[in-house]
Specification:
By secondary structure, the protein is an alpha+beta fold. The protein is 19% helix and 29% strand. It has one domain: 2-Layer Sandwich (Alpha-Beta Plaits), CATH 3.30.70.330. The chain contains two helices and six strands. The strands form two sheets. Strands 2-3-1-6 form a four-stranded antiparallel sheet, covered by helices on one side. The radius of gyration is 20 Å and the shape is globular.
Length: 105
C-alpha cells in the first residue's frame, strides 16, 4: 500500500517517516519529497507498506494526528496522472511579438 503524507514539518526526513510508520508494520520505502532547486523538504512524502491492512491501520490512526508540531494528513496515495505537456505552471508571458499595437479605449 502506498501512503501519502502531507503537511509535514520541514525538519522531517525519510528516517523519521520510516520510524513513525514502522510501528504499524513493515515499511518497503519511506521518502520525503525534496525541492530540486532549494534542497529543502516540500512538506509531503510517501510511505510504502507491504501489508494493506497494516497500511490502512496506519492511515486510520495517523490521519489528523500531531507530528513534530503539525497536524498531518495521511491518505492512500493516488496514482500519478499524466499532465499535458504545455501545462507546467509557473510564469507565463504574453507573446505579442514586435508588431504589437497599443490598444486605445
Amino acid at each position: 500500500m502506498n501512503i501519502y503524507i502531507s503537511n509535514l514539518s520541514y525538519a522531517i526526513n525519510d528516517g523519521d517517516l520510516k520510524d513513525l510508520f514502522g510501528e504499524y508494520g513493515e515499511i518497503t520505502s519511506a521518502k520525503v519529497i525534496i525541492d530540486r532547486e532549494t534542497g529543502r523538504s516540500r512538506g509531503f512524502g510517501f510511505v510504502e507498506m507491504s501489508d494493506d491492512a497494516q497500511g490502512q491501520k496506519a492511515i486510520d490512526e495517523l490521519n489528523q494526528a500531531e507530528y513534530d508540531g503539525k497536524v498531518i494528513n495521511v491518505t492512500v496515495a493516488r496514482p500519478r496522472t499524466d499532465r499535458p505537456a504545455g501545462n507546467r505552471g509557473g510564469f507565463r508571458r504574453n507573446n505579442f511579438g514586435g508588431d504589437h499595437k497599443e490598444r486605445r479605449y
